[in-house]
């Protein structure tokens, strides 16, 4: 089968890749659609992010949906022909963090398309993939493959909302409106936030988040004073979701979050950020990280299946996998795109 294999920055090739046999407890999925994630872009543009670097050829991708074309023994509830979203997270289930229910912190995690371990965990941008049956979540009739492929980034945002605590009636600020920031707007609205403000430095993503739940959008590059007015009376926001990974955005947001507000950092930067700890102390902020997800993947698929969220406005384009170079270039252009998908059929 064909797969998209990254060898070095800018060196992404369509290569023949073996399909392993389907063993007991597994299903084989014919991949139809895959979403290009920020981490895929980092591998493509820079060969990695932070201290993580590609050390061997690796199939990219972890946001996929497709159709089951083989089912092994020991699998129930899934059949050939079922359309599914695939959970790319494979915790061991046995380490101390898995036993504590913290599967996203598994000590032996295997996550599709990740160079964090050697050998690298091969990704899901391929025409076929063999997965454990628990990784397959059925998609409802009428839900597109593209929507199914977006369950993974929605799960990331749902985990961030869970980390924030109750949002019913809360005023929320989201800084950085890439796909994850946009999903945070969707998730916060679904969780009961009554006022959501989103900021970015580019107009196009702000237009998109206005379609999925943001009450107010601010281009802080053009109108920095528009955010500053929310600093009155020690800050107006109850909760901040910082999705840009930008230190300047985080520092500016600290000014507009009220005392004892909750700050959830889910955007990763290329390096470490310096925090104004004096303000953290003085305003008694509750600073929380949010990393990946676990049970939220099933919740994401349920929300999509029941039409309780609408992610279609976030889809910018779907291109053939053989045109991956153009697709990755488009995904990197924030003035034109939000979520770019690949078609593997």
Please tag this protein with its features:
Rossmann fold; seven-stranded mixed β-sheet; alpha/beta; globular; 11 helices; 345 residues; six-stranded parallel β-sheet; 20 strands; 26% helix; Quinone Oxidoreductase, Chain A, domain 1
CATH class of the largest domain: Alpha Beta
N-to-C span:
11 Å
Count, helices? 11
How many domains would you count in the coordinates? 2
Strand content: 25-35%
* Mean pLDDT across all amino acids: 95
Structural class: alpha/beta
Helix content: 25-40%
The CATH superfamily name of the largest domain is: Medium-chain alcohol dehydrogenases, catalytic domain
User: What's the CATH topology name of the largest domain?
Assistant: Quinone Oxidoreductase, Chain A, domain 1
How would you describe this protein?
This protein has helices at residues 38-46, 96-99, 145-149, 151-164, 179-190, 203-211, 224-228, 247-254, 277-282, 296-305, 324-332, and strands at 2-8, 11-16, 26-35, 48-49, 52-53, 58-59, 63-71, 83-86, 89-90, 110-111, 128-132, 136-138, 171-175, 195-200, 216-219, 237-242, 257-265, 286-289, 315-320, 339-343. The chain is α/β, with parallel strands linked by helices. The strands form five sheets. Strands 3, 7, 8, 11, 12, 19 and 20 form a seven-stranded mixed beta sheet that branches. It is globular and about 60 Å long. The protein starts with a strand and ends with a strand. The relative contact order is 0.16. The model has no long low-confidence stretch (mean pLDDT 95).
Write the layout of secondary structure elements.
Elements: E1 2-8, E2 11-16, E3 26-35, H1 38-46, E4 48-49, E5 52-53, E6 58-59, E7 63-71, E8 83-86, E9 89-90, H2 96-99, E10 110-111, E11 128-132, E12 136-138, H3 145-149, H4 151-164, E13 171-175, H5 179-190, E14 195-200, H6 203-211, E15 216-219, H7 224-228, E16 237-242, H8 247-254, E17 257-265, H9 277-282, E18 286-289, H10 296-305, E19 315-320, H11 324-332, E20 339-343
Parallel strand pairs: 13-14, 13-16, 14-15, 16-17, 17-18, 19-20
Antiparallel strand pairs: 1-2, 1-6, 3-7, 3-11, 3-20, 4-5, 7-8, 8-12, 9-10
């Amino acid at each position: 089968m064909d797969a998209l294999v990254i060898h070095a920055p800018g060196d992404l090739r369509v290569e023949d890749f073996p399909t392993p046999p389907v063993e007991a407890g597994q299903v084989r999925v014919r991949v139809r659609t895959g979403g290009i994630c920020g981490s895929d872009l980092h591998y493509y543009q820079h060969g990695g992010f932070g201290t993580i670097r590609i050390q061997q050829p690796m199939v990219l991708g972890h946001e996929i949906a497709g159709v089951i074309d083989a089912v092994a023994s020991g699998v129930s509830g899934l059949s050939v022909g079922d359309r599914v979203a695939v959970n790319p997270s494979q915790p061991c289930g046995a380490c101390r963090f898995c036993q504590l229910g913290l599967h996203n912190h598994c000590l032996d995690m295997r996550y599709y398309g990740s160079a964090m371990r050697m050998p690298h965990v091969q990704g899901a941008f391929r025409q076929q993939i063999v997965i454990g049956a628990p990784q397959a979540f059925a998609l409802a009739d009428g839900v597109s493959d593209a929507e199914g492929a977006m369950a993974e980034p929605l799960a990331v945002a749902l985990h961030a909302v869970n980390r924030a605590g109750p949002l019913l009636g809360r005023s929320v600020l989201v800084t950085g409106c890439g796909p994850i920031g946009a999903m945070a707007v969707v998730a916060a609205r679904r969780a009961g936030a009554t006022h959501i403000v989103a900021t970015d430095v580019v107009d196009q993503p702000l237009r998109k988040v206005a379609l999925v739940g943001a009450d107010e959008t601010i281009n802080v590059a053009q109108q920095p004073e528009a955010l500053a007015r929310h600093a009155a009376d020690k800050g107006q926001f109850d909760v901040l979701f910082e999705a840009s990974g930008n230190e300047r955005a985080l520092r500016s947001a600290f000014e507009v979050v009220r005392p004892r507000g909750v700050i959830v950092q889910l955007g990763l930067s290329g390096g470490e950020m310096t925090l104004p700890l004096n303000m953290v102390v003085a305003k008694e902020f509750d600073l929380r990280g949010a990393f990946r997800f676990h049970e939220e993947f099933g919740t994401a698929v349920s929300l999509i299946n029941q039409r309780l969220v609408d992610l279609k406005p976030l889809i910018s384009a779907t291109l053939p996998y053989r045109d991956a170079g153009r697709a990755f270039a488009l995904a990197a252009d924030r003035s034109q795109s939000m979520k770019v998908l690949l078609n593997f059929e």
